[in-house]
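Exercise 7. Given the components listed, write out the predicted structure of the assembled complex. Treat all entries as one system.
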Amino acid sequence: MENFSLILAIVVVTALAFDFTNGFHDTANAMATTISTGALKPKIAVAMSAALNLVGAFLSVEVANTISKGLVDENGIRPEVIFAALVGAILWNLVTWLVGLPSSSSHALMGGLVGATVASAGFGAVHGDVLVAKVLLPAVAAPVVAGLAAMFSTRLSYALSKNADDEATRKGYRAGQIASAGLVSLAHGTNDAQKTMGIITLALIAGGSIAPGSNPPTWVILSAGLAIALGTYIGGWRIIRTMGKGLTDLQPQQGFAAQTSAATAILASSHLGFSLSTTHVVSGSVMGAGLGRKGGTVRWSTATRMLVAWVLTLPAAALVGALAESVTDLGDWGTAAVGVFLVAASAAIWKLSRREVVDSANVNDTAAEEPAGVVTTAIAAVTPPPAGPVTDGLTATIPSPAAAAATDPAATV
Amino acid sequence: MSIDWAAIGSVFGVSLVATVGLVALFTLGIKGLSARARATAQGNSAALAVTAAYVCFAACAVAVAYGIHLIVAKA
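Answer.
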């Protein structure tokens, strides 16, 4: 611990902040269908998901180890690069949350890492083929796999239960849906909380605080688990609304088919070594379930906006990550400026979100969706969304707070 | 560029078969229970349907347990 420098502390805090955004961004994956079909009350659903995420975080350190041992060359990476990557990922997560679009937190993180690495070490440092095989292809495959599975099972399920008793049916499917949503939450905890553990461990190794090849220290596991659980509990209600109500109208039977298909696809893919993003899987399965019911429709305009967000996730996070990295490169005051910018931008996004609050009380209202739709379209039309705010921010809004912040670290360092 | 088509294919196949199978089982279970609801309403018993329903639910529970096992024992 003797080498626990200031930058390392900043990276750890930022990583936990990312973990938190990851949690509330992905609550929708496990619980959106459960909430929209009324299987669980919104608050109870997020509490259950949070608890299972926390449990999941403690189950293994396998995923964390694949990140901290081998994915990136530990010698070449500096804590500042990881910091810049996290800034890109957090901002993208917040922007997509503001417009209520589910997007993959893992893609945001990878995008941030790619961008920061390119800015720091050039394009040669990124393996393009790995990017295609591990990121782009799964992103296409995931919704197709889960969507088809959900569609066929919804069809079959409606065909089988043609003359079943209504009340028994609703109750039964709700119970089934809760079970499969629980599985998704647990799997999410083992996967996503560990990504943050891996990142923090990587930073600790890069900063020379622990030996290369170490397992994540206990305090890292504990804090990462708590951060993701807290984020899950706070709940990304905007995304839950899009996923549960915006894409299609789900009946309990469809919700069950969708959630089961999602749980199966996630478990099958992580077990067979072809990891799929939870977000992509769940979105696909919700659409599939929507198509599977006779008379069911998918709102393709919402689906298209989601698709745009997915395509933009990696480049947008990469761009922010790259910009952040080039600013941190300028020295300690650059790092401070990026930190201040991150806090200011997050605060601004939160402030914007208060204009039209979405919470557990109105998460299932579709009437209020119109304004959100307008904002979403407007933002989706700007390509890529965060690019504008970032460049503006760096030239226009940053200087005044940065000047204040820059003198601070200079005085203490 | 090496794309692991075998992995994609197996994920695809396993997801499809497992999901459709599980949902079908669960639906049959629910059908069994709703047969009981109807039978009791008419004063009959539906022992066979109820037994079949519980067998279906037990199979689903086994699948969930296997899922948890996969999550916990992820190597």
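Discussion: The mean pLDDT of chain B is 82. DSSP finds two helices and no strands in chain B.
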